[in-house]
Specification:
407 residues; mainly alpha; 77% helix
């Protein structure tokens, strides 16, 4: 039946536009640590540059959901794609650390708005009874960006020269501009209420009997938000510092490790969403934390590049399984009219974890080295499993398979 279809033209265009904007993001996620070595010899500077992106992203999450409800997802996707393109191109003129940090913040703002707006639009396009499966498919664009983005970026800046980084910055600007053009072909409001959602005020929220909020967020997002933060904190070093880690080890093709990471992500997202919709999210979430802890331990003790590649596949299986489920939990535990703020809460918690994790990892690497840093992430990931078990799992006696199906 058409009402149960996931794949439509608009949905496909939405995924491709996310792929393009995310690709620019992962260009910088994998190369900024290398670029930091060009302008500064400190590992802490790399953490600061990376954290700046997520600071801008997290700051916007506080208002992204409300902006989507007021101005519509389509309009905000156009504005944010243009902002990302401008910020990427302006990196060519970043002659000092302070200006580079400012541009990273602006890029973070643009990416934050785009990811929230596109995620909200996707949640309305997907049939409610197939929400877990559909949101898993939606993030395939992000997964493919992880596969190609870091590899292309590290290939472009193989020698770490200034001219190579200028090529990287211009390429990122072009693909963001392409995303802008593609969004223009998405029919605004087609099969989605994302652009028709009324502005929620205190008055109509009371009349509609909507739950109270704090800073626009319902309390249902607190538990999944905390879990999202902890997980992002734990794996941040595996994303931000992997290229520097590989260079220190003398490995030449670190971009392939990101490709293997994306293979794990894509593999898990092709089936875990459907599995969760049918059997409940515990059967997906609990193994994911074990995979994440194991992967970070494997990275810490890798003595050959193939071991690192294998560890990144396992890490991909972890993130690919848990991430869409936390997103669905944020959405399903909130009012339908507030899907924008629920999506913003999920993305904001994830970005905050990456920001804090990147900054802390830079300090840890500086003083205790890479192995200690990755083992620290493994411990946090393992501890997050218990946070989930006592808050959101079926074992907690409050949320299980029925709640997801009801959503």
């Amino acid at each position: 039946m058409d009402g149960e279809r996931i794949w439509t033209r608009d949905f496909a265009f939405l995924i491709v536009s996310l792929l393009l904007v995310s690709c620019a993001n992962y260009y910088f996620a994998s190369s900024m640590a290398v670029y930091a070595r060009v302008i500064s010899s400190s590992a802490a500077s790399a953490g600061l540059i990376t954290a700046a992106f997520y600071v801008g992203s997290v700051g916007m999450r506080l208002v992204n959901g409300l902006m989507v409800q007021r101005y519509g997802a389509h309009r905000l996707m156009l504005i944010s794609a243009a902002l990302c393109a401008a910020a990427c191109f302006a990196h060519n003129f970043a002659s000092c650390l302070a200006l580079l940090i400012l541009l990273r913040v602006l890029h973070g703002v643009g990416y934050s708005i785009f990811s929230t707006a596109s995620g909200t639009a996707a949640s309305y396009m997907v049939p409610p009874q197939r929400l877990g499966e559909g949101m898993g498919y939606f993030t395939i664009g992000n997964v493919l960006a992880m596969a190609v983005g870091p590899s292309i970026a590290l290939t472009i800046v193989s020698d770490g020269s200034g001219s190579e980084f200028r090529i990287l910055f211009c390429t990122a600007a072009v693909i963001c501009a392409t995303a802008f053009a593609l969004v223009c072909f998405i029919k605004q409001g087609r099969r989605t209420g994302a652009d028709k959602t009324p502005v929620i005020t205190k008055e109509n929220a009371a009349s509609a009997k909507l739950p109270k909020t704090f800073m626009g967020f319902e309390k249902g997002v607190v538990a999944p938000g905390v879990i999202s933060f902890l997980m992002s904190y734990s794996y941040a070093p595996a994303i931000v510092y992997l290229s520097v880690y590989g260079l220190k080890k003398g490995w030449t093709n670190i971009g392939f490790a990101f490709t293997m990471y994306a293979v794990g992500l894509l593999s898990s997202r092709l089936f875990t969403g459907r599995l969760s919709d049918r059997l409940g999210h515990d059967c997906v979430m609990l193994p994911a934390y074990l995979c994440g802890s194991a992967a970070l331990c494997l990275i810490a003790f890798s003595s050959a590049q193939w071991q690192l590649d294998a560890a990144m596949v396992v890490m991909g299986l972890c993130i690919g399984a848990y991430n869409p489920q936390i997103n669905v939990l944020c959405i399903s535990r909130c009012s339908e009219a507030r899907r924008g703020t629920a999506t913003a809460a999920f993305n904001g918690a994830s970005d905050l974890g990456l920001a804090v994790g990147s900054a802390v990892a830079g300090v840890l690497i500086e003083h205790w080295g890479f192995r200690f840093t990755y083992l620290n992430g493994a411990v946090v990931c393992f501890a997050t499993m218990f946070v989930y078990a006592f808050t959101l799992s079926g074992f907690a006696g409050r949320y299980g398979k029925k709640s997801l199906r009801a959503a």
